[in-house]
Write a structure and sequence with these properties.
- By secondary structure, the chain is an alpha/beta fold.
- Helices cover 46% and strands 15% of the residues.
- It contains 13 helices and 12 strands.
- Strands 2-1-3-4-5-11 form a 6-stranded parallel β-sheet, with helices on both faces.
- It is elongated, with a radius of gyration of 24 Å.
- Keywords: DNA-binding, Transcription, Transcription regulation.
């Protein structure tokens, strides 16, 4: 990591001069300031944002990275962080990375360039190694819905596997024995963990989930329709449809309704997340409630306390388990 000492040596100036340039201080002429800044850029220097905030006694903003701003789940997540920041007089910068490594890295680096010393990242595609490096540059960096070895104290995450196990256990208690699963085709860990949970619970009940009963599609409304259409085209028989998220669940229900099927008499459907349209769907969607409000506030609090070099509140919860919300899309099989 490049230090002030390295910059001073390369620029042939004192460390005090470099410090003044970094902190936009006085007593540095325009030409020398430009020269030092050029050396900083060439060496790829980024200031220690937490230390800078401590020295200048300024902490005014928090950055938020989400995959998609239009996603109702992500919008809810960002809203709760922004609400907390507003109550503390902080500005929130929200950006998206579209589940693309290059775009996510660029978004994080833009936040660093704007001297954002606290960040909450919902990143699934950047490597653990790169996230560890970013955490060194920004000690107020916190990850949500991800557990990274070495950053455990700065991770707030959901037990996705347990959530899916609870779904299947509930459906099994309702008499269902023929299952199908529609999953996200995104190459991140959430779909894998949720599928593992489904299979694990079914295995305990001596029920197999063949590959023909699993369909993959983008995790949106249209993807849910595509996935269930694929299952039906294969002739897959199922009375219970477990879905990756609420968007796919509603899309699948609408497709089946358009085919003249009845929900839940013909097929019971369970979602995951409990976003707003789970309650607006017809029938209303039984789903797993993701405690996004609590998780978002916990992550933002850890980020802010870390950036301000405060002792982290030991009562802040980091691991969460979703809870079953029973509505109208599941019926008992006799």
């Amino acid at each position: 990591m490049v230090t002030i000492k390295d910059i001073a040596k390369a620029a042939n100036v004192s460390q005090a001069t470099v410090s003044r340039v970094i902190n936009n201080g006085p007593k540095v002429g325009p030409a020398k300031r430009a020269h030092v800044q050029r050396i900083m850029d060439e060496l790829g220097y980024r200031p220690n944002l937490a230390a800078r905030a401590f020295v200048t006694n300024k902490f005014t903003s928090l950055g938020v990275l989400v995959p998609e701003i239009l996603d109702p789940f992500m919008a809810t997540f960002a809203h709760h962080i922004e609400k907390l920041c507003q109550s503390m007089g902080l500005q929130t910068f929200i950006t998206s990375g579209h589940n693309d490594v290059t775009k996510e890295k660029l978004a994080i680096e833009h936040l660093l360039d704007h001297r954002v010393s606290a960040m909450v990242l919902h990143s699934k595609v950047i490597s653990d190694e790169d996230l560890l490096k970013y955490s060194e540059l920004c000690p107020g960096l916190v990850l949500i819905n991800r557990l990274v070895p070495g950053l455990e104290e700065r991770c707030v995450w959901l037990d996705n596997r347990m959530g899916s196990e609870l779904v299947v256990e509930y459906l099994f208690s309702m008499g269902h024995r023929e299952f199908a699963y529609i999953n996200s085709d995104f190459e991140i860990d959430d779909p894998q963990l949720r599928l593992k949970g489904v299979k694990s619970c079914l295995t305990r009940h001596n029920v197999k989930l063949p590959n023909s009963a699993i369909a993959y599609a983008p995790p949106f409304h249209e993807g849910g329709a595509q996935a269930v259409e694929s299952l039906m085209a294969r002739g897959t028989k199922f009375t219970a449809l477990v879905t990756y998220n609420d968007a796919m669940a509603v899309g699948a229900m609408n497709f089946m309704l358009d085919q003249g099927m009845h929900i839940p008499r013909d097929v019971s459907v369970v979602g995951f997340d409990d976003v707003v349209y789970a309650r607006d769907a017809r029938p209303q969607l039984t789903t797993m409630r993701y405690p996004i409000s609590m998780m978002a506030q916990a992550a933002a609090t850890i980020a802010i306390q870390s950036a301000q070099q405060q002792t982290i509140d030991p009562t802040i919860q980091r691991k969460y388990t979703p809870s079953l919300i029973r509505r109208q899309s599941v019926i008992e099989r006799m």
